[in-house]
Design brief:
By secondary structure, the protein is of the alpha/beta class. The protein contains ten helices and ten strands. Helix 3 packs parallel to helix 10. One of its GO terms (biological process) is carbohydrate metabolic process.
């Protein structure tokens, strides 16, 4: 017959074994969790490194004109017509891996005064209204897509993905404080061959337009922010006034804006407004179809276009509509360029070779079909 002490001894042994079993289970769970975390970190590092390599490889590729490559999903774009300014003419179908003509400059071309096919554009000291320079340049059917108020982490990447899919280069007027908050996104804009231009440091009208001094302080601060993501290259000295620089009686800041134009000129900065837009900051919020219709109506009958759009955090519709807008502009015969890529020839003389080729934007040629 078992004694009380032997019974208690068995209970103690059972409880000891139970504690050991639970301890082993907890240890195993901890080891599994640690292994999972390590695996997740390794996968994350691998993905980040892959993305960096892809961005570096893309940035190092020879750039070809943004007459437009086609979407990478295999969609084709037919009947692409262009002018004699260095891009392909005629009818063609652009496949997923096809790019026609030559692209504007690589990221290093951000530096200094814009150098174009023929002569340089006037210096900012002579004429710093870049929209007027474009409209008097003698070039034909060029489209300058511009995006204001970024960079943002949700919309800017979608814009960049679409531009890359169509092999289009654009200009991003970025806010200095947002560059400092999102340096990696601003750097991606630069590394993918787009032009980063100046949209003030803070975009707060009351502070920005308090005086020419406060305006120029913000411009210079934004300039330094841009320079911080362009590998030390001197950025192209180009500004877009928040709200535009138009001398409207409805704009209470118009008087100081006119004074700021002179201050920019003295400091060697160009400024650029727009002559068409998609309406993503006009009135009520529009969906992608409405933005496209607005652009089509607004751009109808114009020669060279400087299109105002936004990549601010709330502009999802602009990201959604962009591919359709590019396809429509292609169908209208436009080629796409950065704002430092102007075929400046006020006399309007086309520079075509006797063999039927036209000079490209970086000295290469594209066969005219």
């Amino acid at each position: 017959m078992a004694t009380r002490s032997s019974f208690e001894e068995k209970n103690r042994e059972r409880r000891r074994r139970e504690r050991i079993r639970k301890k082993r289970i907890r240890t195993a769970i901890s080891l599994i969790a640690v292994a999972g975390v390590i695996a997740l970190v390794c996968v994350t590092i691998s993905v980040v490194n892959k993305n960096k390599r892809e961005a570096q490889n893309y940035a190092s590729q020879p750039e070809t004109t943004s007459q437009a490559g086609a979407p990478s999903d295999g969609q084709s774009i037919s009947t692409v017509t262009a002018s004699i300014d260095g891009t392909v003419t005629g009818t063609s179908t652009l496949g997923a891996d096809t790019a026609q003509g030559t692209q504007p400059s690589d990221p290093s071309a951000q530096n200094g005064q814009a150098q174009q096919n023929g002569m340089s554009i006037p210096s900012a000291a002579e004429e710093n209204d870049l929209l007027e320079i474009i409209e008097n340049s003698g070039q034909t059917k060029r489209c300058y897509l511009t995006f204001d108020d970024g960079p943002t982490t949700n919309i800017t990447p979608q814009i960049l993905d679409t531009l890359r899919r169509y092999n289009v280069k654009a200009t991003f007027f970025q806010v200095g404080s947002l560059i400092q908050s999102n340096p990696d996104m601003a750097r991606r804009v630069y590394e993918e061959g787009h032009l980063i231009a100046n949209h003030s440091q803070g975009h707060e009208y009351a502070e920005l337009y308090e005086s020419t001094e406060t305006f120029m302080t913000e411009v210079n601060s934004c300039y330094e922010a841009i320079k911080s993501v362009t590998d030390g290259e001197e950025p192209f000295k180009l500004v877009r006034f928040p709200g535009g620089s138009y001398n409207s009686s409805a704009d209470s800041y118009a008087p100081v804006k006119q004074e700021c134009k002179t201050a920019l000129k003295e400091a060697g900065f160009y400024y650029c407004d727009w002559n068409s837009l998609n309406g993503d900051a006009e009135g009520r919020t529009k969906d992608a179809d409405e933005l496209l219709a607005y652009l089509q109506e607004n751009a109808a009958g114009q020669n060279n276009l400087v299109v105002l759009m936004h990549d601010a955090a709330a502009k999802q519709a602009t990201a959604d509509y962009l591919g359709s807008a590019i396809e429509w502009l292609i169908s209208e015969g436009y080629t796409f360029h950065r704002l430092d890529d102007i075929d400046y020839n006020p006399a309007g003389t086309a520079s075509a070779s006797p063999d039927g080729t036209a000079a490209g934007t970086d000295g290469e040629t594209a066969q005219v079909q």
